[in-house]
Amino acid sequence: MAEKFISERNLKFLLYELNDTESLLRYPRYADHSREVFDMILDTAMRMGKDLFKPLFEEMDRKAPEYVKGEVKVHPRVRDIMRQAGEGGWIASTFPYDLGGQQLPFTIGVFLPTAIFGAANYSAAVYHGLTHGAAGLIVSYGSQEMKDTYLPKMIAGEWQGTMALTEPQAGSSLTDLTTTATPTEEGYYKIRGQKLFISAGDHDGADNIIHLALVRIKDAPPGIKGISLFIIPKKRIKEDGSLESNDVNCAGIYHKLGYRGAPITQLAFGENDDCRGWLVGEANKGLAYMFQMMNGARIDVGLAAACISSAAYYASLEYARERPQGRKLTSKDPLSPQVPIIEHADVRRMLLFQKSIVEGSLALLVQCGLYEDLEHVTEGEERENYNLLLELLTPVAKSYPAEMGILSCSQGLQILGGYGFCEEFPLEQLYRDVRIHPIHEGTTGIQGMDLLGRKMMMKKGKAAQLYLAEVRKAIREAQDDMQLKPFADQLQSAVAQLEKVTAHLFGIAAKEGPEMFLADATLYLEFFGIIAIAWQWLRQAVCAGKALQKNPGESDVNFYNGKMVACRYFYGYELPKIEGLAIRLLSGDGLTVTMKNEYFED
Amino acid sequence: MAEKFISERNLKFLLYELNDTESLLRYPRYADHSREVFDMILDTAMRMGKDLFKPLFEEMDRKAPEYVKGEVKVHPRVRDIMRQAGEGGWIASTFPYDLGGQQLPFTIGVFLPTAIFGAANYSAAVYHGLTHGAAGLIVSYGSQEMKDTYLPKMIAGEWQGTMALTEPQAGSSLTDLTTTATPTEEGYYKIRGQKLFISAGDHDGADNIIHLALVRIKDAPPGIKGISLFIIPKKRIKEDGSLESNDVNCAGIYHKLGYRGAPITQLAFGENDDCRGWLVGEANKGLAYMFQMMNGARIDVGLAAACISSAAYYASLEYARERPQGRKLTSKDPLSPQVPIIEHADVRRMLLFQKSIVEGSLALLVQCGLYEDLEHVTEGEERENYNLLLELLTPVAKSYPAEMGILSCSQGLQILGGYGFCEEFPLEQLYRDVRIHPIHEGTTGIQGMDLLGRKMMMKKGKAAQLYLAEVRKAIREAQDDMQLKPFADQLQSAVAQLEKVTAHLFGIAAKEGPEMFLADATLYLEFFGIIAIAWQWLRQAVCAGKALQKNPGESDVNFYNGKMVACRYFYGYELPKIEGLAIRLLSGDGLTVTMKNEYFED
């Protein structure tokens, strides 16, 4: 079993060399922290990843949660993981001091542990990660009483938090939610309805489950304008602090392809008309509130996908170094010793593919993390700008790592040949685990429509303009470096393609309406994503090139040269993929809009 | 659970409309048969697929083979399936009458059942399929005694046949095989060695296992020139017909991602120095003999991948028709009823992707099947030409369906959203099952080197010239049809790209040697494969266009229009992918050859 699952060296590069995460320290919110604190957090997370999460990677998959007599039994170590996450301060990492938090930047307090724990054992990292997200909604929008009631136990890892959106008749279509809240004179609401696919929606590793649920108040307006956010605990808290049933019942769990260590549940609220929920914030504003958690969850999904791909990369790299097979094509002597397969160009190509996806995705995700942090500490237009950049890039940072993670883990599996297909090696599990990510928290199709139909258009295209300015900044920097100038020019031409394609599609929107406009939004997302990762690779190459000029030590020389070859790989093999996509996007004939469904019949 | 797994209508289209399979009947070898016989075989295979194979699809996955005290226990119905395959004549379908066969063309006797049974339940179809391949080697190269001894029981489905190549130190590198045969004065050889990853290498559904194994005779020349083909039975046949142990022991089975219904075994030969093997044909010619079975197996792999993708396509099509979710983008009323997701352009795009991969791959595979049949009944240069076409297209027909099958099943899974990730629907299993195909019978990397390094060069490029002539013929036909002319022109330009890229790479071969030449052979294979499928889609569109002019009935109108839109899809969305690949292949800088392995370190 491969030991390494993520590169600490690379994380430091992303945080302190490629980006100036330390600059956050100058804002009052983070003023108590220091580089030393950040490094300590990184070290601690790496140690926990290695010692707590990774050893359970296979076991939590093989001993998946079971549904027994209405109860969900998870791996016995889940309780311990939740408590350690609580005690270590990981659940409240970004919350303000006065709510028991550590007031850390997102980039340090969430990005690092999510990446590291997720690379070590994604399923195990989901429990407290979801609790952080759910508690975050209470921090942002809950009443003082809610904060007092729920946060301490959630932050301690004793109570599980969830986000409960999906219903049987409403998966991607939140407008069709029907779970209903009926007001009572006691202040609470009576809840009735069903939720599906709720991650960690019930399990015996926590003493209570706190659902942050989207619910329609009786007689609310139809559609998304009538959706409210509720807290619905599995067990109600009595005056004396003891717990009693709140008529939330788990009707079953799903048996899944991967991500098996965490239970995905079906829940029934109020089957006995005794389920109470408490309105968070104002009525009918639930979707807007939920998007705080949802946006965070989308970044987390991209991060998890990149980090599962990271574990796959290191596992296949280790195998490629150790497995002798075949000879160099220039060696014809069958009696000469076989070479490790890393000597074969095609294997190196596959490894570079993995490396470029993993490290390119992580760079984009750190970029998003920093935008989020800066949004929280800046004011006025500056704040709005960071918000716009984050909004624009969220669908990309969610989907590129998720979609490419499938291919990246698949290439990793391929490097191991027959062994990759077998349970004796971790690749097959990583390949199964990563497949959830283009689905949950909004499918890739939804992200494509979000990017092209909403984000590119919002504030008259201001987000897009801010983004392109960032990309052009990177291009200018790279153009000063003779070695990187060809890549800078290639990216410049890609940006011109992006503008041309976007203008073409906006023209279709104006002339032919939303269906024709968005028919190939998924391809647009792919096209946009490749260019965004190329941007991050150029930034990395500029940074590595400068570092190489400073005569670093041998290990750093290899590290920086690794960045240079991965950038060359990306510009040689990945960026050209935009050509085919541009052809399609510029010549769309509305085939998928106009064809008849009967043509699928035969 | 979706009922449909393959389209009988489409199979008939491929056999009788797109291609003139009936023309085989004019050759003496097939003269006893008729269109009615072919149709009966198709009907019977469809019925068996539906009634025998499909009902066990999930069960054979969930109750995977177990290794218990040195024995492999498979699903109890395997024995029945093997016997029914034997009784139905499926194992000996293509063998000559005098050996108990039905002398059917490959296209009818192997393609149809492999496709249909494979789409219904790939694991279950492997047992007798392998037996057909192994028995075929005995038919072609075995002595009369071998034929008498082994064929009747294998053809009856009582004994399992295998191909045993891989060893612990020799996966893709057959030159490094070390299993050894030592001659004895009794005529047999003593065998000693280990084989890995042997499909159906041991199980209790057959009374004996007949291994067709590659073995090195003691003191044979090193490398592939010293490899011989042996029959090594699990149990030796005594004079009285009873069986005794032949010291072939199963050391274990692999636990796999998918394809779980068939056991993949580790075998030890001669641990007690009592394993006997019999040389097939001449010494040291084993690899050439084995390539008969291997080439057939490669086509079978492509076929299996296309057919697993077919099952995925119909399962997601059924779901897309039935699942209401969301509304047309032009409908803003949240109280209007939801529409089935097939109404969404992005879902139709995913379905067209699946359809174009499945039916494009099947068309190429039928083409290969016909070349194989024609090779067997023609003479002289005509025969050589069919052989060259088949040789050239085999790596493509193996790899395109296998690699694209992963993406196709993944898109199918995506259409189902969260349900696609769950075991309650067949997509997740199909997604697991299909993943084996780019690995076994020669990885995609091996196929790429085979295509570019061997097949494109053999006979001074004659195979490539023959192939391009076939493609040009299709282009000319399509250019006569105004509707199809744009596609014909697009394919003509793709062929020009193919020639340019090929010439460029041959130039590199001459100037820079094999490593630089073959560094991106896998990309060349992908590039070549897309164009080959485009060729088959143009042929299908020409054929469908002509049929539409004859005022067919409503169901046929939909069928042929389905072909037209899938062709449009392929030319709009898939064929443009060659642009990015061409850029890479024309500008290869040898990155993967020249980079240092240390750069992966960090």
| Tally of alpha and pi helices of chain A | 17
H/E topology pattern of chain A: HHHEEHHHEEEEEEEEEEHHHHHHHHHHH
Question: Structural class, from secondary structure content of chain A?
Answer: alpha+beta
Q: Which strand order spans the largest sheet of chain A, edge to edge or round the barrel?
A: 4-5-12-7-6
Distance between the termini of chain A: 48 Å
What gyration radius of chain A follows from the Cα positions, in whole Å?
24 Å
Shape of chain A: globular
Overall strand count of chain A: 12
Strand-residue proportion of chain A: 5-15%
Q: Helicity level of chain A, as a percent range?
A: 55-70%
- Largest interface by residue count? A-B, 112 and 112 residues
